[in-house]
């Protein structure tokens, strides 16, 4: 069996005047030009790694945008490397705050005009990732926002101790799950957090709110009670989410999530398909990230990624 080495990184971009600039790095020891990336550390997920590695190699704090896919290539001794990439916008504030100094890993940051990037890259695999990004640029879909659908963490069972369903709290394991998922969701940027009014959903959302310095807003529209009674207004919630074009996390319940996703599909003009089942049939504390175009949010969902993601 091939020994896989997991890594992740980002195609970092910014606008300078009317020109789109892409960040390339020159690596000191390899003497090559590529995108910032690095290996998965113990306890990390690939989104966490991408954000950390970009900051370590460039001094730039970023959050992740559109999923650009992955590349594989062989390493010595029969191993193989798997690298996942995302797009990542770099704000002017992040540029000003960058702490980059030439070092033993990266000795130069090279902001490169879009049309010159492909020729500057040294590896075919990097060119293929850039081509994915370039296709998004051509569709005016490289600038994105995310909608995260989150199922609450493990809750206490309904019974004598907790006879009222919406008052059931998280178990000890569930509290741990809510802490574990927060950094991965945060890797996709600070977001409005909108939760079902159920205690288990509010408690699941709390660590993310603390980590990102946001508050948890609640709505009955995302609750299982409203779903059971047919009184929720999911269409109104998702329509507003798409119109606002800002990152949002929606924490809800297993039976409600498929209907939330269907309303997102309708609000974005996306063709429905089996991917809706895959992205909403989530374990407790599982979540899916839907990426949408800032410029044309009604042009369809650009990509979806679901967690936990099994690495094998």
Automatic annotation (TrEMBL):
PROSITE patterns: NUDIX (PS51462), NUDIX_BOX (PS00893). It comes from Klugiella xanthotipulae. One of its GO terms (molecular function) is bis(5'-nucleosyl)-tetraphosphatase (asymmetrical) activity. One of its GO terms (biological process) is AMP biosynthetic process. The keyword Cell membrane does not apply. The keyword Signal does not apply. InterPro entries: His_Pase_superF_clade-1 (IPR013078), His_PPase_superfam (IPR029033), NUDIX_hydrolase-like_dom_sf (IPR015797), NUDIX_hydrolase_CS (IPR020084), NUDIX_hydrolase_dom (IPR000086), Nudix_hydrolase_domain (IPR051325). CDD domains: HP_PGM_like (cd07067), NUDIX_Ap6A_hydrolase (cd03673). This is 8-oxo-dGTP diphosphatase.
């Amino acid at each position: 069996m091939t020994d896989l080495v997991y890594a992740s990184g980002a195609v970092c971009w910014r606008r300078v005047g009317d020109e789109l600039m892409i960040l390339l790095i020159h690596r000191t020891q390899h003497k090559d030009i590529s995108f910032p990336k690095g290996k998965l550390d113990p306890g990390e997920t690939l989104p966490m790694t991408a954000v950390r590695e970009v900051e370590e190699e460039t001094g730039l704090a970023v959050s992740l945008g559109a999923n650009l896919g992955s590349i594989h290539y062989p390493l010595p001794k029969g191993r193989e490397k798997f690298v996942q990439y995302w797009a990542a916008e770099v704000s002017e504030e992040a540029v000003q705050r960058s702490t980059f100094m030439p070092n033993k890993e990266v000795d130069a940051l090279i902001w490169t005009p879009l049309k010159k990037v492909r020729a500057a890259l040294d590896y075919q695999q990097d060119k293929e990732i850039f081509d994915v990004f370039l296709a998004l640029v051509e569709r005016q879909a490289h600038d994105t926002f995310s909608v995260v659908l989150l199922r609450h963490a493990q809750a206490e069972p309904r019974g004598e101790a907790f006879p009222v369903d919406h008052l059931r709290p998280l178990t000890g394991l569930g509290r741990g799950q809510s802490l574990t998922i927060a950094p991965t969701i945060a890797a996709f940027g600070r977001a409005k957090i909108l939760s079902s009014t159920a205690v288990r959903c509010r408690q699941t959302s709390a660590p993310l709110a603390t980590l990102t310095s946001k508050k948890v807003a609640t709505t009955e529209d995302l609750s299982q009670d409203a779903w059971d009674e047919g009184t929720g207004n999911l269409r109104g919630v998702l329509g507003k989410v798409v119109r606002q074009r800002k990152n949002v996390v929606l924490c809800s319940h297993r039976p409600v999530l498929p209907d939330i996703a269907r309303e997102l599909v309708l609000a974005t003009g996306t063709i429905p398909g089996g991917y809706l089942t895959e992205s909403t049939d989530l374990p407790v504390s599982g979540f899916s990230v839907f990426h949408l175009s800032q410029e044309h949010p009604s042009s369809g969902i650009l990509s979806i990624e679901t967690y936990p993601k099994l690495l094998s």
